[in-house]
Known about the structure:
This protein has one domain (3-123): Cytidine Deaminase, domain 2, CATH 3.40.140.10. It is α+β, with helices and mostly antiparallel strands. It has four helices and five strands. Bound molecules: tetrahydrodeoxyuridine.
Amino acid sequence: xxxxxxxxxxxxxxxxxxxxxxxxxxxxxxxxxxxxxxxxxxxxxxxxxxxxxxxxxxxxxxxxxxxxxxxxxxxxxxxxxxxxxxxxxxxxxxxxxxxxxxxxxxxxxxxxxxxxxxxxxxxxxxxxxxxxx
Length: 133
Ligand code: THU
């Protein structure tokens, strides 16, 4: 699975976004070492703090299916009239760090042809962890 293919899947996933408040439709595609991809979209709520981002939707779907190891995630989205590169928010970086090491790759896309890759370690230094392994 190439980075570009994963970005394409993230863009497809944003079609299902429920974003009546921000108008920001976000999708994520999460790749396991076994080559399986779990997708997710953002799901907003009238009580704004209850909104869940696309990255956490994808991760929670995967974890609830028994997955525990991940290679990379692509994040992409659309907001009409704006040119946004979708980097995971701070909460999603912390949630990803529960299951993903510092070498986990995060591909942040502006479009199918315009994206950058960073490691989780670059985007989240000194993450909080109670894990002992
Ligand atoms: N959002 C995501 O789903 N992922 C990101 O990486 C950034 C933000 C969502 C949350 C909210 O529904 C909307 O985008 C605007 O913040």
